[in-house]
## 1
Amino acid sequence: MSGTGATMEVRVARKAIEATDICSLELVAADGGALPGFSAGSHIDVHLPGGIVRQYSLCNDPAETHRYLIAVLRDPGSRGGSIAVHDAVNEGDTLCISAPKNHFALAHEAKRSLLLAGGIGVTPILCMAERLAVMGASFEMHYAARSRERTAFLERIRQSAFADRVQFHFDDGDAEQRLDLPGLLMQAQPGTHLYVCGPKGFMDAVLGTARAQGWGEAQLHWEFFSGADAAPRADDGSFEVQLASSGRVIAIAPDKTVTQALAEAGVEILVSCEQGVCGTCLTRVLQGEVDHRDAYLTPEEQAANDQFTPCCSRAKSPRLVLDL
């Protein structure tokens, strides 16, 4: 994996079980100093044992400068990051992390905010709720989980100053407490912004329902924890990319991603998630038609056809000319 920019060293001050299969890590600066500030919705790149780099949302109060708090779901189907956090990272360990980045920021022009969290997707949503509460802003939060036992930060939320603005929805609970998306999203009120994070199926349902109910794209904000599978598909073909700066043409084989092929040709693009989620590798497209496979760009941005994520997206045309 290519480098992900400057890093800093932190120490795991505390590791705790927050719910079934969910643990949290409290990270403090290894030198005991203050950490860079962050805003609600931010995440950090965490360099884990085995050379794995993963993105985790910060879920503590943005006003805190002495620590970062992340929470991670153990996922047997993951590519190794969650297992490393649960099994290979311990209190007292040192890790390298990036400075906070934010691709999921609050819209300060919003008159009202609707926060929807699915499972471990509560991490950035909780941070947003705490920030909105401090601001005295109008918001409500809905938190859907498989069961109470799998609901991270349940007591923290119940004891918070904004507890009366949060509704919990459990898959194994009574039917009347289940999340009613069509009813909740029935009317897209002007000035209301929707934020959603969680498993892909949950997010697809929320965003699909919102769009069907007439919500505008400018009102919708989301962050995926996992995205495209960069593995080749049976019908993938070869194509070419041309570097605009030099005119050099590089062939992309069916079994290679653009970033892999470019790296083999000595052209490095900064990457991180390699799933089309984080936007680190976003590259301008000057000519050609893109086959978008990311979860980062909005439908409108994809339709504009002027940028793509080379870690997973491909080409529909024989050649893409890139701003490289």
## 2
Amino acid sequence: MVRTDAVAGAVVVITGGARGMGELYARRAVAGGARAIALWDVDAERAEALATDLSRSGADVRAYRVDVSRREDIRDHYQRTAADLGAPDIIVNNAGIVRGAPFWEHDPERDIEATLRVNTLAAMWLTREALPAMMADHSRPKRILNIASAAGTLANPRMSVYAASKWAMIGWSESVRLELAATGHRHIAVTTFCPSFVSTGMFEGARGPLLTPILTPERATRAAWEGMRRGTPMVLRPWTVKLAMALRGLLPTRLWDAVAGPVFRVYASMDHFTGHARVD
């Protein structure tokens, strides 16, 4: 019999778990009664400090220094985490970086390859490691939460590579969800989260399009976490993300450009971007 509560008693792995939204996911896991939580982050000192703080609740919270842009690092630390805590029941693919610049200003390795490795390939690599054990264990619900972006639903100037990484994340995440359902693994739910700008500092200087507020990290993580718990396939925040997707699908490209640019100011949202260009 599969339990109905996905979080209580679960083993949770969170990439980019030392700060920002990753930290908030970890705190939600503790509050939800998770048995063990693995914080994966390149910032070992910050991860250790957070693990120490969260462990006071009684949960088994451990920090692992992991460079998710390296497949061998993910493989090795997945095995270590599983040996220390048990096979994960919940995976939160949260780590991400952004480079806000015209495409021709992107460095091929430092910007293009690094963004795709951290934002897209890392989630694929970790999920590929975790899925066999998840598929074999029907004793409790399993969850995969993939943090994508509204940038993966609409093209936008000055974020071509970031948008590409999130488009790929959405297509892959949705495809895996369908594959699991079609093969009888309905105890594993895949949730894709597509927020607009979130005020973590990662998009410092960016401005939301018309009627689109900058989300607080607390509001964003609450929506993603509750969607993950329920097994909601896709969570989009705020409501204007869904509206923009619908309009883009209905309008001819040139007409959409005329609306998205001067009217909704979508194409100007990154004009004043500064950011911090680091793993979140």
## 3
Amino acid sequence: MAEMNKDHNRVVWMDIPVADLARASAFYEQVLGLPVHQEAVGEVAFAVLDHGQGNGACLIVQPDRVGSLGPLVYLNVNGRIRAAEAAVTAQGGRVEQAIHAIGPHGYRALIIDSEGNRLALHSETDQ
């Protein structure tokens, strides 16, 4: 996460579900007019939309989430992910997946907010 994102932005990342990674990569590369880089962490293949110092996004193969479940928005809770995760249930939401590492990209927790929206909390550390 770029310093600008950590210090100034609430939304820091998005996972965009796709059925066909190559097709989706070509689509976003042409529509947005920027490079899309295919990568993998372990068995998970994905493609990162070039973002430099801006907010980022990646295409991730999740055919069952294409359409109505849509993109996963990552909210910035840098340096306080444990407190943020605890606040989820205290405020009427629920934790779908507890804090876990996401390779070299920090940590996230998947949550359902008080209104039923699926979101990710993101931090560079697991604190």
